[in-house]
Amino acid sequence: MVTILAIQLPVSRSIGINYGRIADNLPSPKDVAQKYKSCGIQLLRLFEPSPDVLEALKGSNLQVSLGTRNEDIQASASSPEAASQWVNTNVAPYKNDVNFKYIVLGNEVIPGPAGPSIAPALKNMHNAINSIGLTSTKVTTSIMMPAVEAPLMVNAYPYYAYSGDSTHNSLEYVTFQATNPVVTDGDLKYFNLFDAMVDSVYSALEKVGGAKVPIVIGETGWPTAGNEPYSSKQNAQTFNQNLLKYAQAAKGTPKRPGQPFDIFLFAMFNEDLKQSGIERNWGIFNTDTSPIYPLLQC
Predict the structure, then answer these.
(1) Comparing C-alpha atoms, which of 229, 236, 230, 226 is closest to residue 294?
(2) Does the CA dihedral 288-286-20-64 come out positive or negative?
(3) Would you say 296 and 40 are in contact if contact means Cβ atoms under 8 Å apart?
(4) Which Pfam families does this UniProt record tie to the protein (predicted)?
């Protein structure tokens, strides 16, 4: 049985929610921005520029992660002028009223044809962002690269490990409920799969000379339907509720204790124009902004 516990996020917590928009029944961007604020959600991730959304975010004080489309990466890599044009079109008009925390080049572009373009695109976009005075805005992507000084975004989904192999990945382990270590790696003890996933990224970075590169969890969450019995409102509530407690504790991972990181939940709403099945059912709120299951106190 899952205990219903609504959590109010402290203002200082580094937790956010992805604002996916592949749907035809979403609330207005203005109402969405207000919902983020009323729920105490400080970080909003937008996968690609939208003038309507960016206008609605003006003066909101939300910390915004703005993505480029995957198909725009090549142009930004090939030409500093193209990167500047993207910034001047999608960032500069809003820079005084929108708090851009991250600019993210694409999403899940590796493996794929855009891979070789990431490094030059990062450089050109970083210079373009700096040229308009946003020197504290970090330019990143979801690929592991030792040359990058900004945090790397990683999409970490314990759900897929559980739905793919529930024999070796117990529900308790993947939803932060294990009371004893499930996996031991030398002196490192893992009570949840999320920590193990994050530390596997740190280990991979260390092997390629990127030990000092921090990370951000760009996506994590649990679907409420589409692949029963693994997907359910109860499992989604349990995972996300315990993830929020994990984030609030800010303890870091066994490999990097004391080093908390930003985490973006996926997603704010269900997206009815996506492929049928679980892809449509990651939302925390219904499109009338009522909760799909109790999670946040708002």
Answers:
(1) 236
(2) positive
(3) yes
(4) Glyco_hydro_17
Model pLDDT for residues 120-179, shown as the tens digit of each residue: 999 999 999 999 999 999 999 875 444 457 789 999 999 999 999 999 999 999 999 999
Three-state DSSP at 137 gives coil
Kind of pairing between the strands at 183-185 and 188-190? antiparallel
Q: For the whole model, what pTM was predicted? A: 0.91
Query: Is residue 219 annotated as a catalytic residue, yes or no?
Result: yes
Q: What type of residue is 138?
A: K
| Residue 284, burial from CB neighbour count under 10 angstroms (0-12, 13-18, 19+) | buried
Out of 48, 55, 81, 108, the active site residue is 108
Q: What is the pLDDT of residues 210-231, one digit of tens each?
A: 898 899 999 999 999 999 999 9
Distance CA 99, CA 64 (A): 6
Rounded distance between C-alpha atoms, residue 245 and residue 263, angstroms:
12
Q: Which two tokens stand for residue 64?
A: 């915004």
